[in-house]
Amino acid sequence: MRRLIPLIPLVATVLVIEFVRFLFAGAMRPASYAPGGPLPTAVVTATDPGLDGQLGNYEQLYVRVAYRATQPIYVSLDGVSGRLVASREMTGGMYRAEPGSGEATLWIAFPEGTRLDALRVSILDLREKAISTSDLPARLQWVHGSVRSMRERPEWVLRYSEARQLPAPAQPPSNLEIVGGVGLLYGLPLLYIALQGWFGLAWRGGWRGAALLPLLLSVPAFLWSAYAIADNSNLGFLPFVLMAPLGVLYLLIAAAARFVARRWAP
Fold first, then answer.
1. In the sheet where 41-48 sits, what is the strand order?
2. Strand partners, 55
3. What is the pLDDT of residues 250-260, one digit of tens each?
4. What pLDDT, in 10s, does the model give residues 39-79?
5. Predicted model pTM
6. For range 192-203, the mean pLDDT
7. Are 159 and 138 in contact (CB under 8 A)?
8. Does residue 104 contact residue 93 with C-beta atoms inside 8 Å?
9. Which is nearest to 219 in space by CA: 209, 230, 229, 227?
């Protein structure tokens, strides 16, 4: 039984990793729309072109929607042909709306031969589950023909097009993000090397074997990184950097298990 004690760190490390992965998956899962309060609304205020006519092959149909919500939602635009939702080959038909009120510009485009009987505006929660839908009657057909230039579009479409072409402003990293990045890139690898050397030399018996177990991963990761860096790879350091947190976690659990085992040993 005592021979199995050095296996405790390995089992505990696996359990900790699985627990963290479970928590992370739960935190990253989008929340559904919580009931209570007024339901979100989305109303079409303008379209370009109108809802009765023809468009050229893959010409974009722009729709302006005014929304109001007390929680984050998605506003989605689809075309309906008969009773079926037309497949969106080209689309800017989904917008994430934050709590409050505002306007969103959506668009859809189809190949020639597509006919729409209605436009469907849907309000979705962050899991993309429908909260409500409404259909706006239309008689639209995409045909073989020329596509209007942006100069022929209304002003609100031009504003939307110009805004899409602007680069998104980059937010400077916070002090916490800088410290975390430095710790991940430099601190944890150095800490792992220090702990690995210390425990590997100081421990005896089965505990030494337990301390040397991370070398099965760290040595290949180190060799891989060294080869990639020698080959002028900008990301060559990643294999060893990503392995280091696992090595540190395992060695710290091993040290705790060894301390407890020695403390309570008869």
1. 41-48, 61-69, 100-109, 90-92
2. 142
3. 999 989 888 88
4. 899 999 999 988 898 999 889 999 999 999 988 999 999 98
5. 0.58
6. 92
7. no
8. no
9. 227
